[in-house]
């Protein structure tokens, strides 16, 4: 394809095909030449978050939608709309761009989020397809939850299993190598973990029951998320490695790729701190969401107890996904 913006007819077709949801709050929506979208937030707080997808090759549309909407859910809000930026290398085809946009629009439709704008461009500045999404959400005034809200003695809960996203990415993007340690059924299940990376339900339940802090576990894995919550809240934590929920397929893949699953990207799992741990776990479980109590918020220092030894958790470095051997 030629460098530069897609032509009028190509872009218009992509916009129309991606318009699967129309929210009443959207007063002006995306179209060719319409550079600003307008949303009515009467009685609500507006919420915004943005992130690119850089570490994966497959399922990037699904990942892009969910990791951004998860940020809104982690603050107790509801995602309303997305703005999508696609930067495609000159080796791309229109078919590839349409496929990714179809994936984005279908994933957004599943969670009732409208695509209201963005930008699509072919450029020699990138050597693979890059997607960056900005999500707009809403919450009732005064009800947004801060990452910095963790309180001393809060229970620390994680949902589902850890490293779901990292496991799915490695099983998909490095399939031949993953086959060395996973049988056909395990490989299929590992790939299918991509279906479970939304934490919108956890965000809703966490808000209802009384989470003091919520954080979706993304780059840097569980230890990265714990460190960020502790730093934001000026607190510490004490968690137990033997309580951490990992799938056997994740353990096998981590060993094969010589990576630390505690620091592997983990979208799909929500970190929740609350003074109502038992009630929170009961509510999550009754809604079909696995929930595990892994430790407590403390006054200071981040401690991981591994085989009876207390290890201080240091500032996270780059995600293990970028340390593949």
Automatic annotation (TrEMBL):
<comment type="similarity">
    <text>Belongs to the HypE family.</text>
</comment>
<dbReference type="InterPro" id="IPR036921">
    <property type="entry name" value="PurM-like_N_sf"/>
</dbReference>
<dbReference type="Pfam" id="PF02769">
    <property type="entry name" value="AIRS_C"/>
</dbReference>
<protein>
    <submittedName>
        <fullName>Hydrogenase isoenzymes formation protein HypE</fullName>
    </submittedName>
</protein>
<dbReference type="InterPro" id="IPR036676">
    <property type="entry name" value="PurM-like_C_sf"/>
</dbReference>
<dbReference type="InterPro" id="IPR016188">
    <property type="entry name" value="PurM-like_N"/>
</dbReference>
<dbReference type="InterPro" id="IPR011854">
    <property type="entry name" value="HypE"/>
</dbReference>
<dbReference type="InterPro" id="IPR010918">
    <property type="entry name" value="PurM-like_C_dom"/>
</dbReference>
<feature type="domain" description="PurM-like C-terminal">
    <location>
        <begin position="153"/>
        <end position="302"/>
    </location>
</feature>
<feature type="domain" description="PurM-like N-terminal">
    <location>
        <begin position="33"/>
        <end position="138"/>
    </location>
</feature>
<dbReference type="GO" id="GO:0051604">
    <property type="term" value="P:protein maturation"/>
</dbReference>
<dbReference type="Pfam" id="PF00586">
    <property type="entry name" value="AIRS"/>
</dbReference>
